Amino acid sequence: MSNATITVLPGDGVGPEVTAQALAVLGAVEEKYRHTFTVHERRVGLDAIEAEGTAISDDTFETCAHSDALLFGAVGSLPAGQTRSGGPRPEQALFRLRKEFGFFANLRPVRPFESLYAASSLKPEHLKGTDMLFVRELSAGLYYGRLESVPGKPSEIRRTARGTEAVDTLLYTEEEIERVVRAAFEIAAGRERKVTSVDKANVLSSSVLWREVVERVAADHPTVTFEHMLVDACAMRLIRTPADFDVIVTENLFGDILTDEASMLTGSIGMLPSASLGARRTESGMFGLYEPVHGSAPDLAGQDRANPVGAILSAALLLRHSLGLEQEAAAVEEAVEYVIREGCRTEDIGEGVHAVVGTREMGRRIVDRLRQS
Ligand code: NAD
Ligand code: IPM
Ligand code: MN
User: Fold this and answer.
1) Site: Important for catalysis. Where (predicted)?
2) Contact 70/19 with Cβ under 8 angstroms?
3) Residue 312 beta carbon below 6 angstroms from any ligand 1 atom
4) Is residue 365 marked as binding?
């Protein structure tokens, strides 16, 4: 029996809507398998800025630190391309959690369901057999740059004799590369034993170092095959032959962009879950942060229209990686796949389905299936 403590950080926009469904699923797991989860709910993002003056308060951070796992919704409240001028930014909550808890490996599985092939932008014959796992480096790289810089901090825009300019730096230490690459090889050893390391070594020094480290780590894993791939070619191959990939390991920003692209193989960005892990262990697994890959989707917020599957599958990853509850995680994944196969769809994956359902109904059907199975 598990007695885990989970801190829930619903955040902004559709974050609270999809998180509520993930929590309902965890509640059903608790009941069915007789676990006791202690849940603390706290504010992050714009919600926290408005109520507490900062994107994540020290108090909330402390609560997180004393948990076995964190379930995160989404932060940010503005449509893509728009930014708030001055003051704290919602996304800083994520950067603080990732950096201070040392979550350097962000796992993003991409496994299109056969019943959803029609919802994808690709032809079904290209999707067959696709089952890949991105291991996105999450605590360094272009997001953090020089050690003193803070992601998204406007002070990096400066006035010089040449005019106004802005600078971002892509810095990796050997150790930062090695720990995430090792994680990728270890995971691949338990899958199809293939690693694709994605970089831009024809241009970037950090990628040249990245390749050197990959070669060294690969030598310790003779049963795992590996290849280097340039990031632009990878963007193309993901669409051309997605089934060729197994584990993909890459730099922070490359991983951010490629996973949004890869989400289209599953039919919607609303389908993808993620797990952010570091070195800290819990009683039965790893301490981790679990969140859907999508953002706060301001265009859908408050309308019961968001797909809760990415959040629910993130809860499954939480059960597996932080609580060591493999059977429960698999049951949640089965319930999601079953409900979708039966034709229950939110509008983003609803092509060809006559009556699409809302966020709450989708969650309710998944909970029902879980209870019956
Ligand atoms: P977004 O992921 O919020 O939305 C992109 C598109 O996908 C929109 O058309 C939206 O309607 C759709 N979409 C997103 N989630 C969906 C879901 N669950 N079901 C169905 N459709 C869904 O990205 P954006 O619009 O570029 O960013 C909006 C805000 O979210 C920004 O402030 C951004 O910084 C933030 N953001 C936060 C996170 C996070 O908290 N981890 C991730 C990405 C973006
Ligand atoms: C993600 C998001 C974040 C990122 C944003 C909100 C800072 O896009 O988790 O994929 O870029 O890491
Ligand atoms: Mn992203």
Assistant:
1) 143, 200
2) no
3) no
4) no
Distance from C-alpha of 367 to C-alpha of 362, rounded to nearest angstrom: 9
Where does residue 76 fall: left (phi above 0), alpha (psi -120 to 50 degrees), or beta otherwise?
A: left
If we measure between CA atoms, which residue out of 327, 362, 320 comes closest to residue 342? Answer: 362
Identical fold for domains 1-110+269-373 and 121-266, yes or no, is yes
- Contact of 293 with 6, CB cutoff 8 Å: no
Q: Which class does domain 121-266 fall in?
A: alpha beta
Instruction: Considering every ligand atom shown, identify the ligand nearest to the alpha carbon of residue 76 and give its number.
Output: 1
Give the domain ranges of the chain: 1-110+269-373, 121-266
Cα 253 to chain centroid distance, Å, stands at 13
| Torsion angle, alpha carbons of 120, 333, 9, 300, to 10 | 30
256 labelled catalytic:
yes
C-beta 147 within 6 A of ligand 1: no
Q: Per residue in 80-105, pLDDT tens? A: 556 666 778 899 999 999 999 999 99
Residue 268: pLDDT over 80: yes
Phi, psi of 123 (to 5 degrees): -70, 145
CA–CA distance, 94 with 97 (Å, rounded to integer) = 5
The question of whether 153 is a catalytic residue gets the answer no
User: What is the CATH class of 1-110+269-373?
Assistant: alpha beta
